[in-house]
Amino acid sequence: MNLFEDYKNVIKKAVENDPTKSNKIYGLSEPMLESNREHLKLLRNELPGRELSREMKLFAKGMGVKETFDYQPLGSHPDFTYLKATDLVEEHWIISGFIDVKKSTKLFNNFTKGTVRLITESIIRASIFAVNLCGGYVHRIQGDGLMVYFGGKNIEKLKAVEDALKSFSMISYFVKNDLKDFFEDNGIQDIHTRAGLDLGHSKQVDWFYSGIGESGEVTTCSLHTSLAPKMQSNAKNSGIVVGHNVTTQLRKDKYFEQRSKEIHDYEDGRKYYQYNFDWERYLVDNNLAVQNDMGVLVLTINTLPDPNRNSRDLYPIASKSKPYFNYD
Amino acid sequence: MTKTNLNYDIDSFLSKYYSFKEVDSPKPGYLALKGKISVLDKKGKLWGQFEILILINKIEYPYTIPIVIEKTQIIDRDWDFHISKEGVCCLDIPHQLLKRKRRGITFEEFYRNVIYPFFANYHYKESTGEYANGEYKHHFEGIAQFYQEEFDLENLEDIVALLETSIGGIKHQPNIECPLCGKPKYKKCCRKKVYSLKGYGMQQLKIDLVLFRQQLLKRKKVLG
Question: Hey, is the C-beta of A319 within 8 angstroms of any chain B C-beta?
């Protein structure tokens, strides 16, 4: 099952039809750019919007989520909108997450800005889908990155942690497995995501309205919200770094490798540590992915045979085997 | 091949294939891995899953062939599916496995190129009615088929002569008429086969020689 197939196809078509490469010597004329703009306009309509594709619906159903979920508006977490334009403050736990695509500026060297815009939008839309699929809430879009909250008033903390890890794992999967090779084939090296996630407990998080009048947003003030982007910047290529509070919720050491350097020093003898999260193992263990003969992950929500499979595609692997029987 | 560290190879495998884990071995002296194989084709389409147990001889590794047992019982315990009543999978003709054993295996390579394809091939057969690359017949017929396909030899006398030459270390002049099949030059004909046979090990060749001689004897009796 290719959950992100529609997003990938749009990116593929945009790249394949980009006029930059074939006109590198003489440059791009305005008619060429206009034709490219028209093409991209049509292509944009192929991106999944509110209506989910068949595979996305199947995946949502498998995760126990409604097949038509409402995308939440950005900027105000729905459980704390009452704080808008007030002086009120509420303490409530939240998981803050930051994820973005690194080396994406290289795209501008190879494609028109229209193509780059559509690539970025495809990745952002796929990410918003993955966040909403897992019950998260996109707080802010920053270029090709997202700031996200997981949690709220009607959800268990552990469940929210699991949802956050699943969501960021899926986004990391999309860029690493569906896009990276494709970009490399088209001369763009080393495109990858980096992500950071941390949990602030209720005594560690203030929800409040930051700004003046309409020029503001309901947001959090927390060491752990501030640490999440620092963790993101510390992540390896395609990596997710999480804070200690996340690891204590999950209590499964096999997914977390403590990094040698702490992410925060309280300067009273205590230190707060960060961990590399093994998201690929987490996806497989949670039945969200399976692995092929080479160990490469494929997202899946059930273990039923794919109805569209074709023996031609199995032949290259199956033909390595020629069985024999010699038992009595 | 130098002796490699089994634990290192297994750790490396487990760090990459997440649905496997090391478990207590039911067979003393063996390391046991239990896990799930998901058969995916080249387009990433899922065909099915099998729970399997893999047993690896700790002392002999890497000069060993892992034992693979299908635990889910998805594959019928029928010899047409090359599996024993206990679920032990007959992964390949012994000769090919022996060749691997003598060279030494790395477990991950063996998983990719022998274990995984065996289960993919099961689905291929379920889908198309036949194995992707054919199959060996059962028992002696399969051995004879192997010699025919690998060495282009059908005549039992020729096979026995080839085995006797290989086992006995008999050396023939390279430019003489081939004493095994009668073609003009030995060096361009059966000499390569004699050398190639050695890769399967003396023990297997002696077993084969006995089998082929018995077949010859049977045939002579029938012919009277």
Answer: yes
- The chain B residue lying nearest A324, using CA atoms, is B136
- For A324, the closest of B44, B127, B142 (CB atoms) is B142
Chain A closest-CA separation from residue B188 CA (Å): 29
pLDDT (tens, 9 = 90+) of chain B, 224 residues, equals: 444 689 999 999 999 999 999 999 999 999 999 999 999 999 999 999 999 999 999 999 999 999 999 999 898 887 777 888 899 998 888 888 988 998 999 999 999 999 999 999 999 999 999 999 988 888 888 888 998 888 888 788 888 888 888 888 778 788 888 777 777 888 888 888 888 888 888 888 999 999 999 988 888 887 76
Question: What gap in Å lies between CA B5 and CA A319, rounded to an integer?
Answer: 30
* A 230-289: CB under 8 A from B: 280-281, 284-285
Angstroms from B77 CA to nearest CA on chain A: 11
Q: Is residue B134 part of a domain?
A: no
Where is the domain boundary, B99, B128, B157?
B128
Residue tagged 């020629």 (tokens): A322
Q: Do B18 and A280 touch (CB under 8 A)?
A: yes
**Does residue A300 come out as left (phi exceeding 0), alpha (psi in the -120 to 50 range) or beta?**
beta
Whether residues B11 and B57 fall in one domain:
yes
B13 with B42, same domain: the answer is yes
Q: Is B134 near chain A, with CB under 8 Å?
A: yes
Residues B74 and B167 in one domain: no
Last residue of a domain, one of B71, B93, B128: B128
Assess B132–A contact: CB distance below 8 Å, yes or no: yes
Question: Domain limits at B47?
Answer: 6-128
Domain with residue B92: its CATH number is: 3.10.110
Q: What is the pTM of this model?
A: 0.88
Residue B1 maps to a domain: no
Q: Is residue B30 part of a domain?
A: yes
Please give the tally of structural domains in chain B.
2
